[in-house]
Amino acid sequence: MGFGTIFFIVVTVIVLYQLWTVLGRRTGNERPPYDPYTRNDQNGAASPGNVVTLPSRRLPDTEPVASSYEAIDKLAEPGTATNTELRRIKDADPSFDAPTFVDGAKIAYEMIVTAFADGDRKLLRNLLSPEVYQGFDTAITDREKRGERMQSSFVGIDDAKIVSAELKGTEAYVTLRIVSQLISAVLKPDGTVADGDPETVVEVRDVWTFARDTRSRDPNWKLVETESEES
Predict the structure, then answer these.
(1) Model confidence, pTM
(2) 187: how many CB neighbours lie within 10 A of its CB?
(3) Distance from chain centroid for Cα 161
(4) C-alpha of 165 from chain center
(5) What secondary structure letter does DSSP report for 68?
(6) Residue 212 half-sphere exposure toward CB, CA atoms < 13 A
(7) What is the C-alpha to C-alpha distance for residues 172 and 91, in angstroms, rounded to an integer?
(8) Contact assessment for residue 54 and residue 219, using Cβ atoms and an 8 Å cutoff
(9) pLDDT by residue (tens digit) across 71-113?
(10) CA of 76: how far to CAs of 68, 79, 86, 163, 166, in Å?
(11) Could you say which residues of the chain have pLDDT below 70?
């Protein structure tokens, strides 16, 4: 071998040795490899087709009990009936996270309002209790019999706030007051407006109650009661 070849071999060996001294040793403090399929947060949004999905991971055993109520205390004043019941729900299901629930309920609200306007019974059946679904289905059927269709556009939610909660046995109930902006109108077969206004944004105030069995492995909540709040 020529001198040049020997020189490059020596240089390569030195470089590899230096890299090994820097990168090849384990100290015990290395971070584990990143797994893109593992979720490290507990505040994920509801997945498609779900109503309100709770985080599946439970709180570490070493976490102080008091801190598990911090999120609840920010949404409902400590000492109130709502705060007390939310804490009871949290005790029954430690994976319950109040802020995540509110975010999921807002998503569910938009999905339900849109599905009702579109007459999407399949989606509504997955999001509503049988009793509530029956009412929605009847309204859609009456609309279809008249040959009418609903033209609706969901603008957004201005406010969503938990106003009450209750744990009955293992069944958790959480009620929210939701203020939204919608454009909605019912059109007759000839295209004329039967109700509403297809060009005007209106404020809608609803009081909706969601429920879930805290023993169930199904993390989804379903809408069990609806009420319109008059302005």
Answers:
(1) 0.71
(2) 17
(3) 14
(4) 18
(5) G
(6) 26
(7) 11
(8) yes
(9) 999 999 999 999 999 999 999 999 999 999 999 999 999 999 9
(10) 14, 9, 8, 8, 13
(11) 1-67, 230-231
